[in-house]
Amino acid sequence: MSQKLTLALSKGRIFEETLPLLKAAGIEVTEDPETSRKLILPTNDPLVNVIIVRASDVPTYVQYGAADFGVAGKDVLLEHGGEGLYQPIDLEIAKCRMSVAVSAGFDYASAIRQGARLRVATKYLLTAREHFAAKGMHVDLIKLYGSMELAPLVGLADAIVDLVSTGGTLRANNLVEVEHIMDISSRLVVNQAALKLKRERLQPILDAFEKASIK
Ligand code: PRT
Ligand code: MG
């Protein structure tokens, strides 16, 4: 097997926050995904390429070996399930939290007390289902692919489960956080076969990432 390595990243915060870790491993991406239309980006190392995919597709590319390794949020990994993936390092990047939020005027606590069956909109069906089941709450989950913050404003849902970092999006839409479900950060994920077959090439990169991500 060739020792060429493919790293799967998503555009935006994950790409930006992975760059310093790559640099620590001596790898520099030589094209900017925000301006380039290329989906396969070269690096200063002819044996390392970066592919740009949707954040939620990173685990899939790595699971099937189309990428040897990648960086994905814990939110994405929980929904994917993590099959075929080795998850050696929490990179402590792209940090945020997963929360339940409602419209400022909605009395979430009393709705729960009264045993109301709430409608909850989210992209994170598995994580949300687990969270409400653990609380013994019956909810109807509505799957959305984005802009969850809109759902309570237009009567699609009573509550949302979404990611929050500064809280600015919630505030701008008159929503309030009522439950903190978990802290989220991004993890390095490695294809299990690649880890065995390309260990010599991968291990120094994993070591450099680990060292650089210790705060
Ligand atoms: O955008 P796209 O639909 O293509 O995919 P994506 O939203 O999954 O990708 P991206 O790049 O936005 O997020 C990639 C990863 O970054 C996520 O899987 C998370 O692990 C992590 N991350 C960290 C975040 C945030 N912070 C974050 N704030 N992902 C999304 N957000 C969104 C959030 O959903 C909400 O709409 O930002 C908004 C809230 O931000 P504040 O600062 O207003 O609170
Ligand atoms: Mg996004």
TrEMBL record:
InterPro entries: ATP_PRibTrfase_cat, ATP_PRibTrfase_CS, ATP_PRibTrfase_HisG, ATP_PRibTrfase_HisG_short. One of its GO terms (molecular function) is ATP binding. Residues 54-210 form the ATP phosphoribosyltransferase catalytic domain. It catalyses: 1-(5-phospho-beta-D-ribosyl)-ATP + diphosphate = 5-phospho-alpha-D-ribose 1-diphosphate + ATP. One of its GO terms (cellular component) is cytoplasm. Belongs to the ATP phosphoribosyltransferase family. Short subfamily. Lacks the C-terminal regulatory region which is replaced by HisZ. Catalyzes the condensation of ATP and 5-phosphoribose 1-diphosphate to form N'-(5'-phosphoribosyl)-ATP (PR-ATP). Has a crucial role in the pathway because the rate of histidine biosynthesis seems to be controlled primarily by regulation of HisG enzymatic activity. Heteromultimer composed of HisG and HisZ subunits. This is ATP phosphoribosyltransferase. It comes from Collimonas arenae. The lineage of its organism: Bacteria, Pseudomonadati, Pseudomonadota, Betaproteobacteria, Burkholderiales.
